[in-house]
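Students often ask why we bother encoding 3D structure as a string. The short answer is that it lets us treat folding as translation between two languages. Here is a chain of 124 residues written in the first language.
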Amino acid sequence: MIPTITIRPGPVPPYEQIRAQVEALINGGLLAAGHRLPPIRQLAADLGLATGTVARAYQELEAAGLVTTRRAAGTVVAARTPEPPADRRGPLAQAAHGYTTTALTLGADLDEALDAIRTAWPHP
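And here it is in the second language, the structure alphabet:
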């Protein structure tokens, strides 16, 4: 079981909304390595979408190395090796893209999105 995924009408295609939300859950540590995602048919039915839409989201996640799919085991969150601290730009850009997609899906503007980051940022 994964936390709720929400699909909102708008310019962001449903498969991208699924991909971005699952990516954010993985990058945020809410879905750990080995966590099994729901089967494509189940998630499609839960969201009221075509199975091809969910399949595309899962394919995009697999292409990004975030999940792996095996017939018997289904789709699971991939084990990830931490990036060396010296090169953070790539992972930060990828996380920012996922966050931006989620914020746009929710209808947030830039100021709201930045306020959310400032609020979430740990204060010493």
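Translate back mentally: Residues 89-105 form the longest helix (17 residues). Keep this in mind for the problem set.
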